[in-house]
Amino acid sequence: MISIWRSALAALVMGWALGLPLPAGAQNFPDRPVKIIVPQPPGGGFDTVARVVADRLQTLLGQAVIVENRPGAGTLVGTDLASKAAPDGYTLLLGGVSNMAFNVGLYPKLSYDPVRDFTPVSMVVSWPYMLIARKDLPQNSFKEVIDFARANPGKLTYASAGRGTGQHLASAVLAHLAKIDMLHVPYSGAQPAYQDLLGGRIDLFFDNSSTALPQVKGEKVKAFAVSTAKRYGPTPDLPSVKETGVADMDMDSWFGLFAPRATPQPVLERLRAEMTKVRADPTVIDIFSKSGGAMATMTPSEAEVFARAEAEHWGKLIRDAGVTAE
Fold it and tell me: pLDDT (tens digit, 9 = 90+) per residue, 253-308?
């Protein structure tokens, strides 16, 4: 018994000497508010997911969880800020396919590495992107849109929430695979893009289906297709791009909570345990399922493999397509 006690004491002393966090400190986490950085303005998919997660997570943690929108340069500003935060669990990142995978291919020199600098706390939910159009667009089907674009290069305009965002890449990848030319019009978020789309000043918007669906249900826009290989539950009559034969496209807009890579394991374990409860919360499931969101069921190790694979896959595809954020 004495030898066991001495071994434990030696481990604690060694941890202190090396500057490693002691278990007692980790057990006190969190003792102040936690911040979730959202690298996009309010109103889009990033923001929606972060606020649903924050609302439930703060109850479980017993501390305020604050959503901080830090938009700029697509998703670069907020993501870079999170990558440089202290790895103590008090600053987290709402990561998505755009800032954790697309940017690898979009930028030759990223100020952060999504795999090296971050570790997944929990994947949360995913949706397809939905191609929608201004209500008075003359074309009435996905095929008509593609045929018009092929016959009139550069005539159709498409919006995005900024260069390098998921909306940008969904349209750019479609254009590359379908061999069409459209004019990209970037906005500083989804809300100003919708203002011009609903006002008839922009033609197309390949937006996250969670924010596009209310506009479709309200008959304020036309809907043409979804980006995933399979159809989307809330719009069963809407084809996937892949099934039309126009392009072999399969793209999810996924979101997850990430922490700086060096965050202590006990802190990660606490966050992961509480996020498991968040994902199982009937209210959370109901909120996301109403917009057709698919709740994530990955373990932390599966999320780690998934995030790495997505960065590699989209990084290569985007570079091969010659798409850039410039």
Answer: 899 999 999 999 999 999 999 999 999 999 999 999 988 899 999 999 999 999 99
Instruction: Say if residues 209 and 128 touch (Cβ distance below 8 Å).
Output: yes
The helix (H) or strand (E) run that includes residue 130 is strand 118-134
CA 100 – CA 202 distance, rounded (Å):
28
CATH number of the 128-244 domain: 3.40.190.10
- Sketch the domain layout of the chain as residue ranges: 31-127+253-321, 128-244
What sign does the dihedral 255-278-27-3 (CA atoms) show?
negative
Geometric angle at alpha carbon 262, from 258 and 263, rounded to 5°: 60
Residues of 28-45 as b/e, b for ≥16 C-beta within 10 angstroms? ebbeeebbbbbbbbbbbb
- Give the Cα separation of 28 and 63 in Å (integer): 12
pTM equals: 0.77
- Residue 84 token pair: 């440089």
As a CATH number, domain 31-127+253-321 is 3.40.190.150
Distance CA 189, CA 300 (A): 30
The DSSP-derived string for 185-233 is EE-SSHHHHHHHHHTTS--EEEEEHHHHHHHHHTTSEEEEEESSSSPPT
Q: Are domains 31-127+253-321 and 128-244 of this chain identical in fold?
A: yes
